[in-house]
Write a structure and sequence with these properties.
By secondary structure, the protein is α/β, with parallel strands linked by helices. It folds into 2 domains: 140 residues, Aspartate Aminotransferase, domain 1 (Alpha-Beta Complex); 252 residues, Type I PLP-dependent aspartate aminotransferase-like (Major domain) (Aspartate Aminotransferase, domain 2, 3-Layer(aba) Sandwich), CATH 3.40.640.10. It contains 12 helices and 15 strands. A hairpin with a 4-residue loop joins strand 4 and strand 5. Helix 3 runs antiparallel to helix 9, helix 5 packs parallel to helix 6 and helix 10 runs parallel beside helix 12. The longest helix is centred in the last third of the chain and has 28 residues. The chain is globular and about 55 Å long. The mean pLDDT is 96. The structure holds ligand PGU.
Length: 404
Amino acid sequence: MVLRNKNIAKLQAGYLFPEINRRKNKLLEENPDAKIISLGIGNTTKPLTPYITKALKEAAESLGTAEGYSGYGDEQGMTALREKIAEQLYKGLVDANEVFVSDGGKCDCGRLQLMFGSKVTIAVQDPAYPVYVDGSVIIGVTGDYNESIKRFDNIVYMKCTAENNFFPDIKSLERTDLIYFCSPNNPTGVVATRDQLKELVDFAKANKSIIIFDAAYSEFISDPNLPRSIFEIEGVREVALEVSSFSKSIGFTGVRLGWTVVPKELRFDNGEQVINDWNRITCTVFNGASNIVQKGCLAVLDKEGLKEMQETVDFYMENARLIKKGLDEMGVKSYWTGNSPYIWAYFPGEKSWDVFSRLLNEAHVVVTPGSGFGSAGEEYVRFSAFGHRNLIIEAVERLKEKLK
Ligand code: PGU
């Protein structure tokens, strides 16, 4: 018999989003006519835009010709795309060969965890995207579950609550090797200011920690004073790497494309460059992002593609505005800064899974329970603005009916 990986056995529950789906399907079994609207998982619904679709089509067709065919490409991604990402999205703040193109931010998180291994301590925002903790638990980071403090020994939770404006109290933070930080945050939607990120970077520098900055929602930032990338912060190159994605901003959730930027100055304690190990991991367990998709991405970064990306972002932001307005009218306290596709709604005194069940059973609307992102998410649920406009409007109407 084969021994089960004991780290997997340590996970506290199933992965959040399949669990939500399971509960939704259970309701459908009992009530097959229920017209359920999902504002749960952040899954895009708007069709790909014309200029980008055309580029993907042409790339696929060219593979059917002798001249246009290509097989495996560079594991790190096409040079032209790495250059264009560095120029267009980072305005030259990073070098093209520090950009590693991938099949998505989630997959890169997993490979980063593989690279850093099990002998690290980590800090995560609480609440946070569940992959940071679950992936770390799987790789064996945790040590043991410590019943008295209700957490794994090697994981520090940085509380991000309404009391601290959803930014952790850095001064009282314990040192860890890695610090996962997501801005705009999933699930709270809050974007860290330049000063806040500077404080985080200085903290990491003083402690010789590495920040894993998740910028998956950076394109949703419309306030020009807010940083879209951690590389906008002075002195960051020795302390941070950044993971990002085209999933949400241009609807590539199913098409798949992300990237990770690892600056050459980032080093391990023995002086070795992190970028060399990241390259080694990339070449060993990844064979490059789809060549069709990478060509599509070259088009995304053209003037026309960037314009279409903005239209896609604007569409979801209008959805977010409608949800926020509806919640305000219902008298539900919620947080939305206008710079993210998630609205973080507060239901004082109620368990977040109970709010989830109430909204599902009574209004047939799926949301994401806040506790799925960490214990500080209790009493909250997350509304996702990714959805068809008519369904967003209908969901808000139904909730108004049920919550008033
Ligand atoms: N990083 C953050 C912060 C995310 O919220 C998500 C997706 C990703 C990365 C994944 O990016 P990809 O490039 O598509 O791999 N979060 C969604 C989807 C759920 C999931 O399990 O990824 C969400 O609803 O939170």
